[in-house]
Amino acid sequence: MSSCRISTAAARLRLAALCGSSLGLAVLPAFAPAALAQDQGWAGGDDIVVTARKTSERLQDVPISVNAVSADQLRDRGAVDVKDVLRVVPGFSFSGVERGLGNYNIRGVSTVASSPTVGIYLDDISLVTIATTFSGAFDPVFFDVERLEVLKGPQGTLYGGSSMGGAIKYVSAKPDLTRIGGSTAAGLAFTAHGDPSYTAEGVINLPIVEDHLAIRGGLFYRHDGGYIDNVAGLDVQNSNYSSAASPDYVPLAQPSLSTRDKDDQNSANTYVGRLSLLWQPDPSWSITPALFYQDYRLRNPSQFFVNTPDLTSSYRLAQPTKDQAGIYSINVEKELPGVRLTSLTAYFDRKLRYERDYSFFIGGLVPPLFALDSYNLSLSRTKTFSQELRIASDTGPGARFTWVAGLFYSHQKDNLYQIVTTPGATPVIGTETGYLGDTTTVTDQYAAFGEANYEVIDGLTLTAGVRLFQIKQELDLLGDGPFNGGLTVVEDRRSNEKGVNPKLGVSYEVDRDHLVYASAAKGFRPGGPNRFKINEELCSADLSRLGLSSAPDAFESDNLWSYELGTKNQFAGNKVMLNGALFYTDWKKIQQQINLTNCGFAFTGNAGSAEIKGAEIEARFNLSDAFHVGGTATYTDAKIVSAAPGTAAQDGDTVQAVPKWMLSAYAAETLPVADRWELQLRAEYQYQGRARRQFGQVQAVTFSDGVAGTVPNLAEFRESYQVVNAFASLGDGDTTVRLYVNNLFDVSPFIDTDLGAGSDRSTTIRPRTVGVEVRRQF
């Protein structure tokens, strides 16, 4: 073993091919930086190899907070997308339950503004798009992936693009040059109070020229059964009005006038295709073109009325969503003496069609229009070209100085077209088109980045990194209609921001099982123009409450410094794992969406400054070779310390969508059954603490006698909730049968409650779902 002694974690990976299992690592195939060690599965996957720092490293050796969930762990949970696993990742939470409309936050760096704080990547390709009421984070489904990585803390050095809070990284399975193989799977699930769900998929890997050329492809289909019923003739409640005279407050309820009866209306279908090619002309080259296409079709949103029984609504019109995205890339790697060159070229094309029933919203703004049907159509199209060039040093045995440097460019064109029509409204507002908006935003990003590690003495490594960037934005806007305040034209509104994101770190590897690290990093997010023209007359009450006469045309950039002290440890021959971290973030000029609840509009403003203090811990105990327990705990105190004028935030308010406490726990056991067959059992407990939904302790109300006033904002907070899941897996290595129960006790917390758009409504997590999947590998 002494001949295999090496001093750095990076060098250990390169030597793993020579020393093999004596280092406890997988042997990495040539030019497979995303190669994954055999997952320890139910034991926690301690030898997963991750690429969080754009080089291959054992998870426990990475001196930053990273969580990785393997493909098997995703399957065991019956996970479809990232929302199904985030409650077991310390410090990771979200708002928005719909796929493609969500908003993620890590360690309290949360926002519902147009620029996300968490970057989303598929194989190092940025999937970040502008977020609006009609578009959120793109969510690839889990299909033919090796793992999911969640990087915490600012990732502005190596990743940039909206990664000031962290990054979510999907790592795809790669073609294998040496063997024919693949898998097929089919699943069926039943949801309480809803329709069944079912899924089917197939993946095949074919070497075309052994050791030189291989192709991998697959198809995936999933039907998610609905669980929200639309019932004709129910009452719709509008908390912005009172049916009683001042000062008595009784939320206004009136017949919805809906004639639609539709059971389980929020069903969805997802179609996915993946294709990738790996060509190695010789051992020094790796050329990988890849294609990913996803078509997601939701029949109706998962919103229910808060004033009606169970999970029901009473909308008048169908409200489908169609989210289509294609990701096309080519990754080229060339190994030269002492360095490795990488070129990643990608094109991301996303189309989102969003149709909604605006009858209650328009009827709330103009009561004489309540009896008429109002229809909203929003079309979003985002096209992004990106190019990254990297050069990295050799990380071979004995290398004390390692580095990576690169250049990045992206060009993104985003268009949002929205039209709201109310047939029959002309006698009241002079037109049937109440609002028309057409906004195009063009964003160019340029960056040069680098990160270096120097091992001063055995085990003690210093890290320094920097990203220099420039972001140029150009906006053109056309708005019209009475709800826009007439015709508005904005041409060639530009912004140009430059910035520097530095990073410093130090780590000490006591031995292979114990690592201590500290880091300081800066995150930055550009400002920009507001994409809507706010009708000052229609929104005068809301604006006045904020001390404004008009909404701002633009918002400023925000930035933060984050500091972390952490440790990663394994004891008793890997029978105990204990990782922990303390973090502090100083966040200036926070970008937040300011909701004008009485008129239904919103704008992005700078809500002030915040301090985030927190701690997280992750533990696993192997009580025997077959029985394991573990869990996570995260405490986050994220508060506004200097609220800005013109927003509803106040000093001492918690940052939106950030629970103070997040907890999870699990117990798992593996039992031999017969021959090669094993039964694996696992149960999980998850807790999300109370979190702020909106700034503002009060909401504006109009009483039946015409008096304007305020009442407590019942949507200010999302209450805490708990979820229990259970899984069982029976397999022999080739065939696996999985049984899972998600949301065992059928809890239905209110996640995204909205009392400001003419109908009081909310969303929840999927009710209790029992599913089975059969998978065969060949």
TrEMBL record:
Gene3D superfamilies: TonB-dependent receptor, beta-barrel domain. It holds the Pfam family Plug. It is a multi-pass membrane protein. PANTHER family: FERRICHROME IRON RECEPTOR-RELATED, TONB-DEPENDENT OUTER MEMBRANE RECEPTOR. Residues 1-37 form the signal peptide. Residues 222-744 form the TonB-dependent receptor-like beta-barrel domain. This is Outer membrane receptor proteins, mostly Fe transport. GO terms for cellular component: cell outer membrane. It comes from the Bacteria. It is found in: Cell outer membrane. It comes from Novosphingobium mathurense. GO terms for biological process: iron ion transport. Belongs to the TonB-dependent receptor family.
